[in-house]
Amino acid sequence: MKKGRVRSSKINWVGVVSFFVLIAFIMQMAILCYDFIREKTSNISLIAVLILIEIVILATFCTFIDWIRRKIMIDRPTKKILQATEKIAEGDFTTRLEIKHEYGKYNQYDLIMENLNVMSSELQKNEVLKTDFISNVSHEIKTPLAVIQNYATLLQDDTLDSETRKTYSKTLVSASKRISDLITNVLKLNKLENQQIQEKHEAFNLTESLSEIVVGFESIIENKNLNLNCDFDDVTVFSSKSLLEIVWNNLISNAIKFTDNGGKIDVSLKKVGSNVEVSVLDTGVGMTSEVGAKIFEKFYQGDTSHASAGNGLGLALVKKVIDILGGEISVQSEINKGSKFTIVLKGVVYED
Ligand SMILES: Nc1ncnc2c1ncn2[C@@H]1O[C@H](COP(=O)(O)OP(=O)(O)OP(=O)(O)O)[C@@H](O)[C@H]1O
Ligand SMILES: [Mg+2]
Question: DSSP for 229-251?
Answer without folding.
Answer: EEEE---EEEEEHHHHHHHHHHH
